[in-house]
Amino acid sequence: MAVVDRDGLVVSANDTFGALLGKAGAALTGLVAAELMDLKSDARTWHAYREVLGGRQAKLSCTRRVKHPDGHSLWVQVSVAPLPAEEHGVLLSLTDISARRELQARLRHLEMHDPVTRLPNRTLFFERLAAALEAESYEQGGTGRIGLCYLDLDGFKAVNDTLGHRVGDRLLAAVAERLTRCADEAGYARASSPLVARLGGDEFALLVEDSTGTDQLADLAESVLKALQAPFNLSGQRLSLSASIGVVERQAAGTTATGLMQAADTTLYWAKADGKSRWTLFDPERNAHRMTRQALASTLRPAIERGEFTLEYQPLVGMENGRLRGVEALVRWNHPQFGMLTPNRFIGLAEEDGSIVQLGRWVLVTACRQARRWQLDHPDEPPIFVSVNVAVRQVWDSDLVADVAQTLAETGLDPRLLQLELTESAVMGSAGRPLQALQALSDMGVHIAIDDFGTGYSNLAYLSRLPVSVLKLDGSFVRGFQYEGEGVPPNPADEVIVEAMIQLAHRLGLSVTAECVETSAQAARLRRIGCDTGQGWLYSRPVAPDRISELLGTKACNQAS
């Protein structure tokens, strides 16, 4: 302890006080106390100290680091309190807290570092990331950019499961050493090296502050992949390993830790999905597509209930006379945010989450009701059939036969005027319940068509044992028929293949519909080789029900609508 007068000079100090500063207590008399404690280096502390000296503040307590004459530093707790009024001064006391500070530092190190790899852990990583994204960090100089390589070891779980967690931990430690080496090499001749951290499990991160662009991050990712390619030798046991890396590099301004990590996590997922053992750079357009996909998936079911879906109908035209024989119902989603969406934007999502059952039931009822309305509105014309697409999940997750029967009963539509389309791969793998459903529908009088035929198994012998009545040739076959007499002649094999398929189909009692008919030359060649029905823009694009009413009783093949 030491007594300090109102002017801030040491009046007296005991030997213990002097020992902390490396001097005898008596030798401190007359010296400026604030300089001994370095109280002027902190403006707030210096102000509070002067307030106590002037009697305007009751006390002061702070922590200072002081240097001993022998060269070592120590941490002390400084307390300043006023003496009785007649003493005209303050009492200054010091407590050596160096051991406590050292213990706190050791505990903090343990708290902030992974015990297996000795790398900074998730807590310290996010602390550093948050600090790097603070405005004062990048406004004081540097590039103002930040980069991140988010890494996940491919197949690491198999190592733990087969060799045990002890070997797994040793492998993680070896990986950490190689990552640290890559970071040190990347930081050579730069202001600092990337921070390497283990975020948990087999996930690691390399944080690059003041990055110079995507090239720097790409080089770092490449070096990491190369470093991990060499086998790991763990006590004579050789293990091979690879990794997938998501790479993000952007301006620090406007970036949040959450946003950066979400982008990195998404990009790591892309790297895994693209085949693993690679790095992938964050792509805003690809991410926007993913976000759109998620937005669509989350609103699919409510959209069905809100009536946001509508049907358009594309004519199916007889090749011999060009007259309308039927239509294919094609669903559209009139999305309030993204506008009119075609099936390729949402049918896959509906199949994934099961909402295809609810949507498919709505399409079936709406299409059958419309087909019946055309029949009633045009009693003098031969009735046209309606073709409805059916997903395999509708067969498995719902009673499709009961749904069809109920719909036909409610709408009064003749079963022979309903055609259900399934993809070739779905029908060719039919067995058990799906096959029983198809057979029951066929027995009911409903026609079964194979959509996109020729892109899958193309097993006509197997098809002969299924209740199928129509084959719809995939458009890739029909596109080879576009030759109009100019340019390079088509490959003769295209026509030979299609003609052979049509003849085989007819021998099996099946009719054939050609998709994607766009020119009169295509129609003429398909008609010549015996194709029964055509569908495509030559006849009409998908249109509203009113336009189909106009086409009834007319030849549809003269021009596109």
TrEMBL record:
Domain GGDEF, first and last residues per copy: 144-284
Entry's transmembrane regions: none
Domain EAL: 293-556
A Pfam family of this chain: EAL
Entry-linked Gene3D superfamilies: 3.30.70.270, EAL domain, PAS domain
NCBIfam families found in the cross-reference section: GGDEF, sensory_box
PANTHER family membership: BIOFILM ARCHITECTURE MAINTENANCE PROTEIN MBAA, DIGUANYLATE CYCLASE DGCP
Protein's recorded name: EAL domain-containing protein
